[in-house]
Amino acid sequence: MENDSGFCSDCKAYTDVVLDHRSGDTICTECGLVLEERARSDPITDNGVLTVNVSNDNKKAVSCALPRLHKTLQNPDKSLHIAFESLGVMADRLALVATIRDHAKELYKKADNRKFCRGRNCDAIMAACLFLACQEKGFPRTLKEIATVAMVPQEKKSAE
């Protein structure tokens, strides 16, 4: 575990937080609120891009990306992570709460695990997951609203 500082929405202030590397959680030390769940932090990959820092006598360091090596590395959750980011962007555009966004991610992961996404328009499937999550959580949005945010024609979304 590692101590750091961050903004707690419950305390409404910057407080000390604990980073639990085992579970990936960021926890407020004042109130115990989990600020971020399952955060991925890997100092080797630097946000998914491998880098080499070259410095000369502790002067300005030069960072060089290693795209060829990065392409050879396989990450089984890479496409899922990208889809989750897209779902987050769509949910933010619709001003949806985190519980709906997370439920949409769960629905998408179920569809992905059953290999339902292969050969289909992933944006339409993500939009359908958002639509279902909104319906199930009692915060209905119209197909037109979600299709606009997902940049998917409404006919395509309703067909999926």
Automatic annotation (TrEMBL):
Full protein name: TFIIB-type domain-containing protein
Q: Does the keyword rRNA processing apply?
A: no
Q: Which organism is it from?
A: Prunus armeniaca (Apricot)
Please provide, alphabetically and separated by semicolons, the GO molecular function terms listed in this UniProt record: TBP-class protein binding; zinc ion binding
A Gene Ontology annotation in the biological process aspect, one of them, is: transcription preinitiation complex assembly
Q: Which PROSITE patterns match?
A: TFIIB, ZF_TFIIB
User: Which domain of life does the protein's organism represent?
Assistant: Eukaryota
A Pfam family: Zn_Ribbon_TF
Does the entry feature the keyword Repeat, yes or no?
A: yes
Question: Which InterPro entries does the UniProt record give?
Answer: Cyclin-like_sf, TFIIB, TFIIB_CS, TFIIB_cyclin, Znf_TFIIB
Q: Where is the TFIIB-type domain?
A: 2-36
What family does the Swiss-Prot or TrEMBL record give for this protein?
Belongs to the TFIIB family.
Key words of the record: Metal-binding, Repeat, Transcription, Transcription regulation, Zinc, Zinc-finger
Assigned GO CC terms: nucleus; transcription preinitiation complex
